Amino acid sequence: MGRYQYEPLDPSTNYIRLVTILPGLFDDPIEVEITHAELAPPSHDDKPKRLSLKEIQETLPEGWRAFETLDDRVIFLNSVDAYRTWSHPDPTYPREAYDPVAQEDDQPNLRYEALSYAWGSSRSPDTVDVKTSDKQSQARFTSELCVGRNLAKALRYLRYEDRARVMWIDAICINQADVKERSSQVRRMSHIFSLANRVVAWLGPGFSNSKLAVTTLDYLAPPEVTKDIKVDYELSPETVFKEFFLTCSNHDRRLTQLAFAGRRKIIAPESQVPWPTWVPNWSQYLRTTVYHGLGFCASGISGTRPGYKCIASDRLEVTALSVGTITSVGDTISGTFSGFAETLRSMQVNQLRKRRYPTGKTYLDAYVLTFASGQVEERERKCGNPTLAELREAILMPEGSESRSQDMVTSRYNKYFTHGANGFQPFNLSNGYIGDDVFVVLGCDVPLVLRSTPGGEYEVIGDCYVHGIMDGEAVLGPLEYPWITRAEPESDGRRRPEYFNTVTRYPTRGDPRLESIPIPPEWEPIAWERTRADPYHCRKFRNMNSQEIINSDPRLFPEALTERGVPLKTITLV
Known about the structure:
Blueprint (H helix, E strand, L loop, with lengths): L14 E7 L9 E8 L14 H5 L6 E5 L5 E5 L5 E2 L27 E5 L8 E8 L6 E8 L1 H10 L6 E4 L1 H4 L5 H8 L2 H6 L3 E5 L20 H4 L10 H16 L55 E4 L3 E19 L3 H10 L2 H6 L8 H9 L16 H9 L7 H5 L6 E6 L6 E2 L8 E5 L6 E5 L5 E6 L1 E2 L6 H4 L6 E7 L5 E7 L4 E3 L14 E3 L15 E3 L5 E2 L7 H6 L4 E6 L1
Parallel strand pairs: 2-7, 6-9, 6-10
Antiparallel strand pairs: 1-2, 1-9, 3-4, 4-5, 7-8, 11-12, 12-13, 12-15, 12-25, 14-18, 15-16, 16-17, 19-20, 20-21, 22-23, 23-24
């Protein structure tokens, strides 16, 4: 039996390949047919209309949130027990209001399913039998096509016993030996998947912990970003990741991705070419000190206009504010609350209760809030977090005692408590050293630990939590009484800063610290509606002269901050 030979696709047309999985029993040889078909868009561009996410949220009982998936469906989440469902919690609520069914006219003429799966190892590939017919003699031939073992297993589970199944599967429908075709077809994958009748996600056979495999898709890039990414399989991973970083930064006008970079997260590439520390290595699991969804905004709603510049191929110039230098590093604290409590007891808790931290709270409170990364009831309400008082009480309880707080608070990773030279002392990260510097970079939501080089440049070590500067205090100053910051969900379900007046009980999304600072006369705030393409923290202003629209606050432009005495400087990351 010979190897299957692909008929080329004309790149100037809309044609794709489809694979028909022929019927058979589970253990039968896998037999398929491969055909060419034109991928035409549906006759109507309009999607079925439903209520907006904000309107749907207003219909939900307390404790429920509505979220939008990547394919614009609505999913409901109970924040108490994390239960998720496609159905409205009120069974009498009309489904067509939040999950309308597409009309037949809105569907493409070509009917197929698209398969999403993990390729897995390319070692010891399996084979499928491809059935073809001679166009003139109508004779039937069989040839072999190599596929990965993970795909071969998926095909056995996806195959019907009594009928054929038409699918688009990248490993079969794209000639993997033709680099130009691969690049061309991969660029069309968003259309291929969006026009499919159904997308099947193959996660593998079920196992005991399958129910724990539900994860968020929040970090997938929106189409507004991916349209600027050029697929090229000849590029190195470092180049691909760097170009993705720059594409995201140019689109968002932010440097949010720096939180995922750093020396602690780099695995040296096989080529042994030095990997810039400011480029995240997305080929591995990226651990961060500060969870992205906690609503912290260390640099305020600042952007990168014109706050960064890529120099040569491996250097990045950014605008930043120095927070301090690490003067000592403590021992690693185990991820348990008891380990944390034991560490604090060894530091003389009574002294920590008396000393005042720069924010006005005690050092004990600062350490406790640092360990919890700010996740307490006062900041994140109705999430099951303990209060600061409960955590403090748990610390002060005799050794060996148990409390609700000790059960509720655990750390994701090992932490170091370090001390800085400017009074803002406790913060945690994976591996900072004495002499490392802490910076707030404009356009980045969390502080960064940087390590200076002999040439005066900086390596990124990683993100960190510094109690007292996580909500923009480094660039805007402290939030004065009677205001406090809370992380409250917005219409998209994500938590962002809300400022609560403890006297009037009045909440607002506008930062009170900016009220006394005039907006530059050429800029005006505009109404806007959030989309997935917007950065996490965002406000929109329009330049009345040029009509340029920006997604950051012009009162936080570098020149505006410098004029108000904020000691910004330009540094180079390598």
